[in-house]
Each structure stands twice: as structure tokens, then as C-alpha cells.
Design brief:
By secondary structure, the protein is of the alpha+beta class. Helix content is about 40%, strand content about 20%. Strands 1, 2, 6, 7, 8, 11, 12, 13, 14 and 15 form a ten-stranded mixed sheet that branches. It has a three-stranded antiparallel sheet with strand order 5-4-16, with no helix packed on it. Strands 3-17 form a two-stranded antiparallel ribbon. Helix 2 runs antiparallel to helix 3. The chain is elongated, with a radius of gyration of 29 Å.
């Protein structure tokens, strides 16, 4: 039987406010346990929540960026459930009327552009954290510690429609969403610290069937690589289970990266199990049109806008423009490189940013902000290709030397120091070609007999005679001319 995969993602995005969503406690990561939790976070009797305006503004920013409807009036509800790290025994969230409704996220999967619809994005508070390691009781027994520093941290939960059909598509969507919230500055995107956590709802159904299969939710995945593996495993598990005569049950599962498998955590609750009801301590959130307009006016140029500008003004392909706008830092780096080159050379700048530079960043596992080659230096290297000083092949060697800090990373100093200047004198190249033709009459005859490979062989001989320094384009042109 052919199976169709159905995936929807719920992403918990920690908002970049300095204080929590309903209290003035700090959201700074890494503090000693329970040093950043006040009476509101600990749910002490008589304490009352107060809405953080900055969290609402960040939600509005996101809604505007994805083309969503910003609800003029939304409601906070109590989502009732018990966890040791949730002192109130309920979470303040939004249910019936979320602040952000609808919207879309567009991205590329390979060369194919996809657009996924969003269901909603709602504001809520985070729970605390149970620490199960390195805690030993008075009699040597293992124990669990509760850290409430994270309790009350503002979250924007972004829910997609179940429109993704592969693990690769889900990862591409998650990367695009991650890039957008970091671009806007509403989230730092640090997945290791839990600032961007993904729940994957995965189900399978026979191809052509309209009814959705029973889903399992893989909870709190904190890396793109683990997201892909978790979905792939869960798809295999469900298909094998059904084909063996079993049934998929609705449940929450955890991904074990060491064993590369998901395992059952608990049965999956439905909305009615949480007994949502409006929080009596919080009035409705009212967002006036003037407030939305002020935030709209202060918004940065969005990835989609910049992508369109790269295509229309710089002549880049849709794919290149999309890759260069996956992060704000990459787009700024590219624009600075392109601005220092002659008009019409943006494609060459894009090739180097997306090619050699990106490969070096990935290899050394560093961000573009930490690149040892900054935009002026890369532009200087690309300029030497444009003016014929060096060939593309030579430039790759110069790039490596720049990355390693040779001659302070100055491309001109490296070219001079290594004697890499390309021979562009047509007279000198012509003389080399004459010598090669005289020395290899048999290859010349093969070319005249119609063997195209013979031409490539002659080019190779000329480049060998020039020790790789002859301008390849001039070699091709002059050789064709001399061969008639």
C-alpha cells in the first residue's frame, strides 16, 4: 500500500522580553535555580498576573510579518493540568480567541517553493523545569529538583495547518520560521537553551484517503536534525504498526536522540480535557488599530520584501534570493559584498556567499557574524576575478588562505605573495598556444577530424605550459581563432 505522510508543527517561540509575561522576574538564561521566580511565578496566594506589553508587541510583529489577522480583542484562559513544575496547576494561555489568526510561511524544499498556512499563534506562559540529574537525597537516593526560573517566560505558540508531506518539508518550514522570528528580533532562536522548541504532529493515511489518520505528537524537539530523524522514525513506526494489523493511538511521544527512536510519554489529551475557561484575573487583551499601525511603521524590511528586491533590482534567481534571505545576517553580508562590486555582478557575489563562504561556516560550525572573512575582504577577492587578475580556481585557493589569516586576510597581498596573478597578455598566451600546436600535431588533427575532446586536451596543454596562470577565457578564444 502507498502511504501519505501528514505533518503539522506546533512551535514554542520564547519571546525576547527582559521580563516574564505576567511578572517582572528576569528571563535571563543560566541563573541559579529558583533565583528568578517571584510570588507570581510561584503562584503564592494573593499574587496577580499583569500583562507584559512587550510580549504583545512581539506577537503583533509576527502576525504582521506572516500576513495574519491581528485580533482586536483576545482572551486569556486557564489551561488546567498538573505538573510538578507548574505551581498554579494551570497554565495561562489563549484558546478560543488567539491574538494572531491565520497567515502563511513560504520556503524552498530544494528548488521547489512551498507555502504552508498557519492556523494561529497565541500567547502563553512557559512552565518550570524538572531536573532529574545530579540530585541525591540525604540517604543517597536519587531525587528530582524543581527549577521555576522558566515559569512564566513568555511564549508565542505558532501552529501550522497539517499540510506538510515529508520530514524534509517540515524541516524546511521550521528553518524558515526560525529565520523569521530571529530576523524580527522577537526571539533569539537559541534551540540549545530552549528558546525555539518544536512539537511535531505526525500521522499516515493510505494515499488518496481524505480522512486524517490518528496522530502522535513528538514533543519538544530542539534541533532541526533531530526533528527530521524523529519524523522519519515515527512514520516508519506507524506504517509498520498498521501493516502488522495494529492501530496507532493518539499519544505524546519523546524523541531519544541516542537511540534514534521515539517512545511513549503519555496519552494525548484533547482540548476538553484541559477544562479551558477565561482567566478571571486578566481582562481581555484589546489591541487598537493605532497600536498596530505604530508597530507596522517600525517593522524592518521583511525576508519576502528583500527577496523580491534581490530578484527585481539585482537580477538574482528566486532560489538564490530565498537562500540569501534565510537570515538577516546573511542578507546584510551579501548586500555589503555586492555594493562594493561593479553593477551587474550580484550573481557572482551570491555564488561566493552561498558557496565557499557557507561551506566554510558549516565546516567550522560558526555563524556568519564570526566569519574571519568580512564583506570588504570577500568583495576584494571577487573583484580580482572580475578584473581578470585571478581565475575562479585560483580564487578558491586565495579564499582558503584568507580564511586561515595569511597576510592578514588581504586578498591582494596573498595574490602577490603567492605569485598568482593571471597571465592576460594576448601576445604571451598566443605564443604558448603556437608552441603547444607545434608540439602536438596529432591532437590538432584529431580536432580537425571533429573530435571535440581534442580541443579540451589542447586547452589543458596550454594551461600546463602557463602553470595554470593563463586566463582561461582568453586561452579558449585564442585557441579557437588559431584553429580556424
Amino acid at each position: 500500500m502507498e502511504w501519505e505522510i501528514v505533518i503539522g508543527l506546533e512551535t514554542h517561540t520564547q519571546l525576547s522580553t527582559e521580563s516574564k509575561i505576567f511578572s517582572n522576574s528576569s528571563t535571563c538564561f543560566g541563573a541559579a535555580p529558583n533565583t528568578q521566580a517571584n510570588e507570581v511565578d510561584m503562584a503564592l496566594p494573593g499574587s496577580l498576573p499583569v500583562m507584559n506589553k512587550g510580549a504583545v508587541e512581539r506577537a503583533i510583529q509576527f502576525g504582521l510579518a506572516v500576513g495574519a489577522h491581528i485580533a482586536p480583542r483576545s482572551i486569556f484562559a486557564r489551561k488546567n493540568y498538573f505538573y510538578p513544575d507548574l505551581p498554579k496547576n494551570y497554565q495561562i494561555s489563549q484558546f478560543e480567541i488567539p491574538v494572531v489568526q491565520g497567515g502563511t510561511i513560504s520556503f524552498f524544499v530544494g528548488d521547489e517553493e512551498k507555502t504552508i498556512n498557519l492556523t494561529r499563534a497565541h500567547l502563553e506562559e512557559d512552565a518550570g523545569k524538572s531536573l532529574h540529574e545530579n540530585f541525591v537525597g540525604p540517604h543517597g537516593e536519587s531525587s528530582t529538583g524543581i527549577d521555576l526560573n522558566r515559569a512564566g517566560t513568555p511564549l508565542l505558540e505558532i501552529v501550522s495547518e497539517p499540510e506538510m508531506r515529508s520530514a524534509a518539508e517540515a524541516v524546511a518550514y521550521a528553518r524558515a520560521l526560525h529565520g523569521l522570528v530571529v530576523w524580527l528580533g522577537i526571539c533569539d532562536g537559541n534551540m540549545q537553551e530552549g528558546s525555539f522548541r518544536i512539537d511535531a504532529n505526525v500521522s499516515v493515511r493510505p494515499k488518496g484517503q481524505k480522512e486524517l489518520g490518528t496522530r502522535s505528537e513528538v514533543k519538544n524537539v530542539n534541533s532541526f536534525r533531530f526533528l527530521e530523524r524523529a519524523i522519519q522514525y515515527e512514520v516508519r513506526r506507524q506504517i509498520e504498526l498498521i501493516e502488522d494489523g495494529g492501530k496507532v493511538v493518539q499519544e505524546t511521544r519523546l524523541y531519544d536522540s541516542e537511540r534514534d527512536e521515539t517512545r511513549s510519554m503519555r496519552s494525548k489529551e484533547d482540548a476538553h480535557d484541559y477544562r479551558y475557561f477565561p482567566d478571571p484575573d486578566l481582562p481581555p487583551l484589546v489591541i487598537a488599530p493605532e497600536w498596530i499601525s505604530r508597530i507596522q511603521d517600525a517593522m524592518p524590511e521583511l525576508p519576502a520584501q528583500k527577496r523580491q528586491r534581490f530578484e527585481q533590482d539585482l537580477g538574482l534567481s528566486g532560489y538564490d534570493a530565498a537562500q540569501l534571505t534565510t537570515s538577516r545576517a546573511i542578507s546584510v553580508f551579501f548586500e555589503e559584498v555586492a555594493s562594493k562590486l561593479p553593477q551587474g555582478q550580484a550573481k557572482l557575489a551570491a555564488n561566493w556567499v552561498l558557496g565557499e563562504l557557507s561551506a566554510a561556516l558549516n565546516r567550522d560550525e560558526i555563524e556568519i557574524e564570526q566569519s574571519p572573512i568580512q564583506p570588504p575582504a570577500l568583495a576584494g577577492l571577487v573583484a580580482r576575478i572580475i578584473d581578470g587578475t585571478i581565475s575562479n580556481k585560483m580564487a578558491r585557493d586565495v579564499f582558503t588562505a584568507m580564511w586561515e589569516g595569511e597576510h592578514g586576510g588581504d586578498p591582494d597581498a596573498i595574490i602577490d605573495g603567492r605569485g598568482l596573478k593571471q597571465i592576460s597578455d594576448s601576445g604571451a598566451i598566443g605564443a604558448m598556444i603556437d608552441d603547444v600546436l607545434a608540439a602536438h600535431p596529432a591532437i590538432v588533427e584529431e580536432f580537425r577530424a571533429g573530435k571535440q575532446k581534442a580541443f579540451n586536451s589542447l586547452v589543458g596543454q596550454v594551461m600546463k605550459a602557463a602553470k595554470g596562470k593563463a586566463n582561461p577565457q582568453q586561452v579558449n578564444d585564442l585557441l579557437k581563432e588559431k584553429l580556424g
